[in-house]
């Protein structure tokens, strides 16, 4: 807990000490961290392997982009409304996907994400098709708040959302509901035999996961100023899954670290070589083979010794 | 942590550049004096071949400038990074160039959706972006921002050249095949409208999903349509697959194949299958003017081959940027912007005037035909028609033409 407070203080002080571009990078890393953490609820705690989490991100980003472009809604409201919309869509997705288990569940999540991708590619009026939505504004907040329009202000908005989401997830996974989720992860038939409606629990956690994923997508759209179909592509879903696994699944904090690690590594490697994906692949194989607990697991082992 | 490490590495890189410049016998005292040009360019992925051409043109230009007295007496330093064609990378890398490397001038962004993503950020960055190939009409239309300039030929201008050529051609009936996404449909709509305006018949069009490998059902449809000409809105691998199959089916013997843009990349990929294709072109090495002859000769000396279309187009953009900086006497965004407006440059494509109203370069348009020339390894595009700037450039802020 003390480490957490220190980390939060360090992150809060970061924009004051970092050069401007580092703050921009860190903002994006935190947004991706929020996305990876939301996927961890499904992958790490419930063993629901989703190959389509980009759907939540893209949905949130497009919803937020359209709200900011076409309405006068202030920035924070647009972001939270988009997250809610994504969560509601998540209920429907969960209802369908939880009809299946294991690999079939994963395939259904993938199919759903690809469906959204295809729609985004065709529905020019709403998504701008292959060109995407560009020039998404950061509207003035409620009561004329202009702070979120600046680089540092937006960083604090993202940091606030991440800390809030983390606190929520932490309470969630430690609650009785979280215990049921772990029950589903370890042995679903046994959990059912204990009298729990596991399908309902799974629908709930997928919807929550979508809502938080949608929140991160909604934060991304005004941050980057645009949204396009790449945000919904299956390749991106795979990358988020990698972030969770490299960071350390079932730890909430691990995936955040994994996301930051993935993004910064991509950023640094791509400056030196065009085939950065090759090196990243090797690093990923290394983690799977030698450190299945991910970065967080390595870190914890080191600290305990 | 990587962030902290990366800063000194970047410093190290630029000091290496400085050492290289000094070691090369250059006159520049300090690399800090260099004019930095940011190039977030697509080098990998589907558009990588275009990005590679554009990068080479920029490198050639920078080398030329640095070999003489530099620009405003300062050397040019290119800051190049691969975006893999992903707009989120492009924005991030451009932002990094601006905020960390102090870049105020950007060029060489390949895809239009990348350009559309970067444009709204330019005012905040206080940076000028000079397009080298971006075709989307909206960039000088509804999405125009004060710090964006387009010295190259736009997409509507390319289509316009083909449309003007159509009016004079004896063909009466047309059909089309396009890729099934925004660009394919938009370009086909523009073409259909032009055909009708010319008083000719547009029989219809088919659209193939991106990544189609087998075009035989589409080729059958085109054959059965009874058209004399077929308009292709295909790019990259799809274009290559179509042309190769069309040759097997001898489609070109019956129907004249037309395209928005003839690009050497695909000619080199499909070889003889491209012969006979007629289309718009932004630049051809065969253009007959003194600036182009000097450029082609210098290029051949350097690389042992003719410059290709995107190389010529990007090079012209570099020359326009150079002229604007010389006129402004500074690289300050506000000064370069006012120097750029109404600037007239005679370059590889002849006269270009950067009009102030929508920042589009007014210039001539070309239609080329792919022919086989003895002694050449690949077929080459040859200019068959040239149209003056006032017929090619659309009215200000518009993507369509009045007549």
Measured as a percent range, the helix fraction of chain A is over 70%
Task: Tell me what portion of residues of chain B adopts beta-strand conformation.
Answer: 15-25%
Extract low-pLDDT stretches of chain B: 1-32
- Strand and helix order of chain B: HEHEHEHHEEHEHEHEHHEHEHHHEEEEEH
Please list the strands of the largest sheet of chain A in the order they lie side by side.
1-2
What is the typical, i.e. mean, pLDDT of chain B? 85
Largest sheet of chain A: 2 strands, antiparallel
Average residue-wise pLDDT of chain A: 87
Distance between the termini of chain A: 18 Å
Model regions low in confidence, pLDDT < 50 over at least 5 residues of chain A = none
The CATH architecture of the largest domain in chain B = 3-Layer(aba) Sandwich
Structural description of this entry:
The complex is a heterodimer of chains A (305) and B (403). Chain A has 305 residues and is an all-alpha fold. Chain A contains 14 helices and two strands, in the order H-H-H-H-H-H-E-H-H-H-H-E-H-H-H-H. Helices cover 77% and strands 1% of the residues of chain A. Chain A has a two-stranded antiparallel ribbon. In chain A, helix 2 packs across helix 11, helix 11 packs parallel to helix 14 and helix 12 packs antiparallel against helix 13. Chain A is globular. The model of chain A has no long low-confidence stretch (mean pLDDT 87). In chain B, helix 2 packs across helix 13 and helix 13 packs across helix 14. In chain B, the strands form three sheets. In chain B, strands 7-6-8-9-10-14-15 form a seven-stranded mixed sheet, with helices on both faces. A five-stranded parallel sheet of chain B has the order 2-1-3-4-5, with helices on both faces. Chain B has a three-stranded antiparallel sheet with strand order 11-12-13. Helices cover 44% and strands 19% of the residues of chain B. Chain B has 15 helices and 15 strands. Chain B is globular, with a radius of gyration of 22 Å. Chain B folds into two domains: 195 residues, Response regulator (Rossmann fold), CATH 3.40.50.2300; 154 residues, Rossmann fold. The N terminus of chain B is likely disordered. At the A-B interface, helix 2 and helix 12 of A face helix 1, helix 3 and helix 4 of B.
């Amino acid at each position: 807990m003390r480490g957490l407070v220190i980390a939060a203080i360090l992150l809060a002080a970061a924009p004051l000490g970092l050069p401007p571009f580092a703050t921009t990078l860190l903002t994006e890393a935190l947004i991706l961290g929020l996305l990876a953490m939301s996927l961890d609820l499904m992958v790490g705690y419930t063993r629901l392997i989703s190959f389509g989490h980009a759907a939540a991100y893209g949905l949130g980003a497009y919803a937020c982009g359209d709200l900011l472009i076409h309405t006068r809604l202030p920035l924070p409201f647009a972001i939270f409304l988009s997250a809610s919309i994504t969560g509601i869509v998540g209920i429907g997705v969960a209802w369908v996907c939880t009809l299946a288990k294991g690999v079939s569940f994963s395939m259904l999540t993938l199919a759903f994400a690809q469906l959204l991708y295809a729609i985004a590619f065709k529905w020019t009026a709403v998504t701008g098709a292959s060109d995407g939505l560009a020039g998404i504004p950061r509207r003035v907040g409620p009561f004329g708040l202009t702070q979120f329009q600046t680089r540092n202000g937006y960083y604090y908005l993202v940091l606030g959302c991440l800390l809030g989401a983390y606190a929520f997830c932490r309470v969630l996974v430690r609650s009785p509901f979280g215990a049921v989720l772990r029950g589903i992860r370890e042995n679903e038939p046994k959990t059912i035999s204990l009298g729990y409606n596991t399908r309902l629990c799974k629908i709930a956690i997928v919807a929550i996961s979508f809502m938080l994923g949608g929140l991160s997508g909604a934060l991304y759209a005004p941050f980057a100023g645009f949204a396009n179909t790449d945000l919904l592509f299956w390749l991106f879903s795979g990358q988020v899954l990698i972030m969770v696994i490299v960071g350390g699944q079932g730890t909430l904090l691990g995936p955040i670290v994994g996301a930051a690690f993935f993004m910064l590594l991509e950023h640094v490697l791509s400056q030196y070589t065009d085939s950065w994906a090759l090196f990243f692949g090797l690093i990923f194989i290394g983690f799977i083979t030698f450190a299945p607990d991910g970065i967080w697991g390595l870190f914890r082992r080191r600290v305990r010794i | 942590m990587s962030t902290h490490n990366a800063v000194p590495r970047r410093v190290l890189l630029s000091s290496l550049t400085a050492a290289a410049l000094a070691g090369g016998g250059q006159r520049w005292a300090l690399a800090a004096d260099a004019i930095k040009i940011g190039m977030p360019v697509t080098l990998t992925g589907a558009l990588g071949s275009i990005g590679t051409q554009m990068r080479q043109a920029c490198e050639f230009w920078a080398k030329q400038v640095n070999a003489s007295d530099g620009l405003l007496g300062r050397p040019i330093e290119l800051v190049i990074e691969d975006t893999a064609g992903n707009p989120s990378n492009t924005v991030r890398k451009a932002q990094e160039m601006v905020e960390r490397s102090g870049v105020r001038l950007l060029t060489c962004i390949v895809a239009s959706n990348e350009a559309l993503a970067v444009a709204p950020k330019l005012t905040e960055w206080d940076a000028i972006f000079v397009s080298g190939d971006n075709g989307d009409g909206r960039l000088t239309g509804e999405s125009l921002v004060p710090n964006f300039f387009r010295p190259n030929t736009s997409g509507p201008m390319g289509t316009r050249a083909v449309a003007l050529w159509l009016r004079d051609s004896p063909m009466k009936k047309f059909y089309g095949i396009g890729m099934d996404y925004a660009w394919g449909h938009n370009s086909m709509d523009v073409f259909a409208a032009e055909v009708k305006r010319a008083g000719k018949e547009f029989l219809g069009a088919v659209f193939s999903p991106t990544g189609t490998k087998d075009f035989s059902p589409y080729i059958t449809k085109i054959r059965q349509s009874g058209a004399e000409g077929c308009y292709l809105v295909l790019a990259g691998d799809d274009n290559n697959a179509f042309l190769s199959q069309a040759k097997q089916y001898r489609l070109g013997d019956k129907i004249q194949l037309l395209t928005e843009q003839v690009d050497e990349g695909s000619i080199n990929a499909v070889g003889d299958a491209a012969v006979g294709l007629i289309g718009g072109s932004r630049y051809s090495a065969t253009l007959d003017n003194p600036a182009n002859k000097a450029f082609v000769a210098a290029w051949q000396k350097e690389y042992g081959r003719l410059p290709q279309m995107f190389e010529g187009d990007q090079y012209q953009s570099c020359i326009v940027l150079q002229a604007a900086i010389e006129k402004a006497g500074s690289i300050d965004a506000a000064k370069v912007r006012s120097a750029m407006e109404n600037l007239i440059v005679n370059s590889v494509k002849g006269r270009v005037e950067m009009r102030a109203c929508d920042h589009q370069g007014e210039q001539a348009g070309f239609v080329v035909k792919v022919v086989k020339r003895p002694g050449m390894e690949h077929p080459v595009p040859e200019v068959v028609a040239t149209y003056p700037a006032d017929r090619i450039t659309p009215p200000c802020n518009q993507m369509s033409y009045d007549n």
